[in-house]
Every structure is written in structure tokens, then in C-alpha cells.
């Protein structure tokens, strides 16, 4: 996608305003970068409700209501956790839409099953949840930047559907 990050955020803002919706973020590996990208746009309080940084497993459980048993069974970097994070962000906010990310940004922490650059995404809205996994190359900063861009671009695409 050739759009700059500010252009992407402006498009997303217009889509959310058109629906009268607010959004929330539930972030682990990005540590609030998605929320930061959204709130870099003046007037974002019209459509951005809150950002939750749930870096630890305890935070995922306490702040988003992710079942600790799900984390224990699948690991924090997994589809069930990403989906539960997104759903929890909607349920525990005044937003109609949420994006969640959980992944391995590196440089350490990866494994054969969950290598550095692997990120699970979850998007939740009234009546729906979508999730997918992506594998990004590069160092920690590159993985996190690619995660922010993908989270927002896919959110925009889902709003168009």
C-alpha cells in the first residue's frame, strides 16, 4: 500500500466518522503505537475512544478479560488470544470497533512455532470478529511499524466491506 501512515489514519477517521463509530486498540507487541498513530491526527477524539496496552499476560486478563486458561493453552501469541483481546476491548470500552495485536517483535523471544516477526491480529465489531496472522521481516522497529500499518489498513478494508 502506497499511502503514508497519516493518509491511512485520515481515511480510517473518515470511515469511522461516517458510521458514527468509535474505535479502541488492544496492543501487546506494539506497546501503544497504533493508538499513537491514531491520536497523532488532530480531532481524533471524534472517533478514537481508548487504547489499552496489555503487554503482560496478567494485563490481558485483567484489562481485557482474556481467560487465563486460553493464554495457558495457546500462548499469548495466538489466534484465540488476539480474538479475545479484540472482543474484550469492545466489551470494556465505549467503542463499536477494536483492533488487537499480539506478536513477537524481537530480537529475542521467538521459537520454531512462533518466530520473531509473527503477529496475530484481531478485529471486533458488532456481530463480527476477524483474525489473521502475518509474518514481518526486519528488526524490532520494522516489525512494530509493519504491524501498525497492517492493523490500520486491514481495519479500513473491513470498514469498506
Description:
This protein has helices spanning 5-19, 33-39, 57-64, 68-74, 79-91, 140-160; strands spanning 23-27, 48-53, 97-103, 118-125, 128-135. The protein is an alpha/beta fold. The longest helix has 21 residues, at 140-160. The radius of gyration is 15 Å and the shape is globular. The two termini are 18 Å apart.
Structural class: alpha/beta
What portion of the residues fall into strands of 2 or more residues? 15-25%
Distance between the termini: 18 Å
In total, the number of strands is 5
Query: Average pLDDT value?
Result: 96
Biggest sheet strand line-up: 2-1-3-4-5
The gyration radius over C-alpha positions equals 15 Å
Order of helices and strands: HEHEHHHEEEH
How much helicity do the residues have? Answer: 40-55%
Low-confidence stretches: none
Largest sheet: 5 strands, mixed
Number of helices: 6
Shape: globular
Provide a compact summary of the structure.
With 161 residues, the chain is of the alpha/beta class. Helix content is 44%, strand content 21%. The model has no long low-confidence stretch (mean pLDDT 96).
